[in-house]
Amino acid sequence: MTEKVALVTGAARGIGLATTKLFIEEGYRVVMVDRDGDELAAASKGINSALPLNLDISAPEQVDEMIERTQAHFGRLDALVNNAGVADFGPIEGTDFKRWRTVMETNLDGVFLCSQAATPLLKQSKGAIVNIASISGLRASTLRVAYGTSKAAVIHLTEQLAAELGEYGIRANCVAPGPVRTKLAMAVHTQDIIDAYHDAIPLNRYGSEDEIANVIVFLCSPKASYVTGQLISVDGGFESTGIGLPSLRSG
Ligand SMILES: NC(=O)c1ccc[n+]([C@@H]2O[C@H](COP(=O)([O-])OP(=O)(O)OC[C@H]3O[C@@H](n4cnc5c(N)ncnc54)[C@H](O)[C@@H]3O)[C@@H](O)[C@H]2O)c1
């Protein structure tokens, strides 16, 4: 097979689905992985060059199956996008160990498991890994003891991967999205939170799935061939503003 192959986790909707569609536009074949079988079936319908896999990336044996089936179907892997994530916002006293583990299992363990399992195929292709963190991994906030910590760990895990796998020609980078109106975000963003984000973000708006996907696909492409170990916030300027007080703005 000569076409490049990308594997996107959490590909049934949101940022993962937008990334899948952009990869297809760029001529990649895509392995679409998601544990929501119904959404995955609906999303992958009509995408002929995709291989949909209804699997849970927090389960080690399912991650092994994911790589075995990728190898059997396409025989190669050029890009791994660790995008699957869950959000669960709550105070520390309300975050029992089960809730903590549920967030960590997907957001952190899943990124580790998928990166580890994909490494042999990525060595062959000198491929790329892009991990999806969040601005919540860069700035602490109330209610995000588990989510924010999981995303901060993903940022460091990316650097570990870049440091260790660079000698094999594998690049590893991280994208930290700002707020995007996906199902995940809308489940935890009240109108008050939406208004506060608009105030805190220099571009004064949420991002779109496509705006995140553009950066992910760029980081996987040869145009980013000397970029590794980096974190790019795609967040309308949220992370770059120190004292971004709305009252200090002209408008
Ligand atoms: N939307 C935002 O505002 C925002 C902001 C910052 C970061 N992010 C991150 O972007 C990524 C994508 O989020 P989204 O907003 O598109 O979410 P989404 O909920 O729309 O999509 C996530 C997909 O991942 C799948 N998934 C979750 N856990 C899985 C698992 N263990 N195995 C397989 N599939 C699994 C879900 O079924 C779902 O289809 C997540 O990592 C999220 O934390 C999102």
Automatic annotation (TrEMBL):
Its EC number is 1.1.1.-. The keyword Oxidoreductase applies. Residues 4-183 form the Ketoreductase domain. Keywords: Oxidoreductase. GO terms for molecular function: oxidoreductase activity. Coiled coil: none annotated. SMART domains: PKS_KR (SM00822). InterPro entries: KR_dom (IPR057326), NAD(P)-bd_dom_sf (IPR036291), Sc_DH/Rdtase_CS (IPR020904), SDR_fam (IPR002347). Signal peptide: none annotated. It is an enzyme of class 1 (oxidoreductase). Belongs to the short-chain dehydrogenases/reductases (SDR) family. This is SDR family NAD(P)-dependent oxidoreductase. It comes from Pseudahrensia aquimaris.
